[in-house]
Amino acid sequence: SGMSKDLMPGPYPRTAEERAAAAKKYNMRVEDYEPYPDDGFGYGDYPKLPDKSFHERDPWYQWDQPDMRHNWGEPMHWDFDMYIRNRVDTSPTPVPWHTMRKHFLVFLSTMLIMFGLGEIYPSYRPVGPKQYPFNDLYLEKGGDPNKEPPVVTHYEI
Amino acid sequence: YRPNRYVSLPAELDPETYDSSPEKRRAEAERLAIRARLKRQYQLQLNNPNPPAVIEDPALLRWAYARTQNVYPTFRPTPKTSFLGALFAIGPILFWIAVFKTDRDRKEKLIQEGKYKRPFSVF
Fold first, then answer.
1. What tens digit of pLDDT does each residue of A54-71 get?
2. ipTM, interface predicted TM-score of the complex
3. What distance in Å separates the CA atoms of residue A146 and residue B9, rounded to the nearest whole number?
4. Alpha helix (H) ranges present in chain A?
5. What residues of chain A have any CB closer than 8 angstroms to a CB in chain B?
């Protein structure tokens, strides 16, 4: 809508002039402009911006769009809709990532091993078979009411 | 605190935030110039007495175009893309064929031997 073909993204830039033209098109410096590697994946000449989410951007600067922390005309990341403030957050964590991962894996493996051992070697209080009253429920199980039921004793003296 | 793939380093540990050399300062100044030019364009359109109905953002249009219409012209079948395509498109079909076939064969064998207990159904 109102934008010409050379203002839209195009194929991967081959020569240095194409790179300079693409950097100018995307409002970036020529040294900052770095397209995605030409692997045939469909990126074209779209710039590869650092993978930082919008949580890390300065909250006190006067952005043109304050909720997105994004200025008009600034080149957007390919995964822009992933890095908004409702979703993925790449801001630095208070605890180092490797420490977090180590603690989590230790806890998870401990719990899984203990549950597995509990399944293989169960331990519970001793139990016996269930005892039913009225001569082992003779009438309820369909026994003949005219006949004498067999006497069932569950105890020994 | 070691750098990793998922989370960025804090500003105190990242060497790019300090040790500013003249080249870095010049780069920052150039970026600031570009940003100021874009802000000026935006503010002119915003504070216009006859503002346009919608102030189009060319960056947004380029982003949408690149993700939707620019993928097919720039796509190229390479060994990596064709392998990934086969894995994600044909792989699940073959996997579920194998799963259902083995399940049905097992059930059929149990029925033939007479060991299969028909599940109770209300309908």
1. 988 889 999 998 888 999
2. 0.73
3. 87
4. 16-25, 97-120, 133-137
5. 1-3, 7-12, 25-29, 31-32, 39-44, 46, 52, 56, 64, 71-76, 78, 80, 90-93, 96-98
